[in-house]
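input
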Amino acid sequence: MFVGGISLCALGFFSLRLCVKPFFGQRLCVKPQYYFFIKLIILPINEGLNDMQAEKLEILFQRFISKTATEAERNEFFELVKLPGANEALMQLTERYALRDDHLMELPQQVSDEILSAILSAEDMPATVEKPVRPLRRFWWAAAAIVILVAVGGVLFVDKMQRQIPAIIEAPIDIKAPQLNRATIALPDGYLIMLDSVANGTLIAGIVRKIADGQLVFEGNKSNVAYIIATNPRNSTAIQLSFPDSTKVWLNADTHLQYPTNYSINERMVTLDGEAYFEVRHNVAKPFRVIAGEQTIEDAGTIFNVKAYKGKAAVQTTLLEGQVKINNTVTLKPGQKYSRNKITDVNTEEVTAWKNGSFYLDGCEFGEIANEMGRWYDVEVVFTNPATMHSIVAGGEIGRNLSLVQVIGILKELNVNCRLEGRRLIVE
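output
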């Protein structure tokens, strides 16, 4: 049964050791989602992750080894490692970042026994196993058995195993609003900087300086064309970017902005995926342009907001002050929004509520509000009735500093029924 399984076993154990040990902080909680690590070692290594997936994986990996990952980030990591190519990416990360023994975490004896017994019974093997003499690193004793079975069979009966592993599931009582900014900067050489671990005043790569938490200044320019990507993840407060020409940009949660290292030498152009608020210093000789989905926005001394989340609603550009031209054909006036080839008048307070610290409700479709809540609290939004997505909410604003349970309570008073199940916001 075990012929030819040794090399695969070693590889699987290596992956499991490197990937599991950083991720549980001070105390290991036995919850079903943590057993996704058991699945990790059977993932195929035949395709690579795309750039965005690899970048996200590296961010989460760094947070885990620094023991700063939230439960939501752990869950997001579990989903990423199930993708083809994740094992190879993780091995590369473990070569890049030094891991220490203090990242190791043991499972309690009872839990490790239950895991191994479940595996053995799933494979129709004897469930009586002699316990090791020394109870140290019990986790690796159980993991070794897992890897051997996976290496030989190729498929572990995970569903059956999970049914036999008793676990106490405690749904989160509440989810607090983010209090800190957790943005990252991806440099042209591929190095990823976690800004919350960088001291104020630090100059990064000779071009980006962190001046305070949630504030970056881009200094100087380089003649070569390369790109820096600023990412503000889900469940993170807004980050403010200042460019050499005094242009300022605020990034909402779950937003990426690509900035060229030769900014303003020949032109001023950035690329946006997500939502950002721009205060642009006008320069007739060098127009400022934003590429966002199907739109290219050009300023004329302008304050405007662009919402361009991939896979969501169409790109929306709203002008607050000055003038913008879109796709070199459409010109907006203050108080106008352009989306789906249409210009409409809008309440600018609704558009900029995220920057001013609130969820704007009055007259808005709840689908948009719920998606914004999902990015802010980092929860999955599930509509049991799709029609609710288009229902119009009658109300004012809700502070983004409130916890999710508090927000749900206010929404119920407005006849919007929601409930929280773990990291899922269920909308009825």
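quick obs: The first helix runs from residue 6 to 20.
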